[in-house]
Design brief:
alpha+beta
């Protein structure tokens, strides 16, 4: 399969408050899990701006024929040269992807920051009823991702 670039994204160069203000200026909606993730010590924004190549894949694109666990998705993606995203990437992608079509979630592949099933795993983007969302989500280690689930990874070095 060909892993075409989904977006070239610049991340970093803002403070947390500046990033939140930019999101607010675009009427981006959050849920409680997103707010928790913004306060996570691992939600780090680099001072320098880095340009990243993002790839969007489905579980089917990765070769799965039945719904996989997240750890299996990451393993296969890694073997294809894809890497998980820093936690803060979801906010930068939300700002860059204001024309997201209404419909399915767009999960941001990232490492869970706490080994606690009650704590959010990461972010997803959604356009629901004309409102843009940056939402945090929670899933158990044995949650099976739908085959058509779209997931964003980084291709190349950070």
């Amino acid at each position: 399969m060909s892993l075409n670039e989904f977006k070239k994204l610049n991340v970093g160069g803002l403070t947390r408050d500046e990033l939140l203000a930019k999101l607010a200026s675009h009427d981006i909606n959050f849920n409680n899990y997103a707010e928790i993730l913004f306060d996570d010590p691992k939600f780090i924004i680099g001072k320098e701006i880095n340009s990243l190549s993002l790839v969007k894949v489905t579980c089917c694109d990765l070769g799965f024929s039945k719904p996989p666990y997240y750890k299996n998705i990451v393993s296969v993606a890694s073997s294809m040269g894809l890497r998980e995203c820093p936690l803060s990437l979801g906010a930068f992608l939300r700002l860059e992807y204001l024309d997201q079509k209404e419909g399915p979630y767009l999960h941001i592949a990232s490492k869970k920051t706490k080994d606690d099933e009650e704590y959010p795993n990461g972010f997803y983007l959604r356009n629901n009823e004309g409102k843009l969302w940056l939402r945090g989500y929670r899933a158990s280690h044995d949650y099976e991702f739908p085959l058509d689930e779209e997931i964003v990874f980084i291709r190349g070095a950070i």
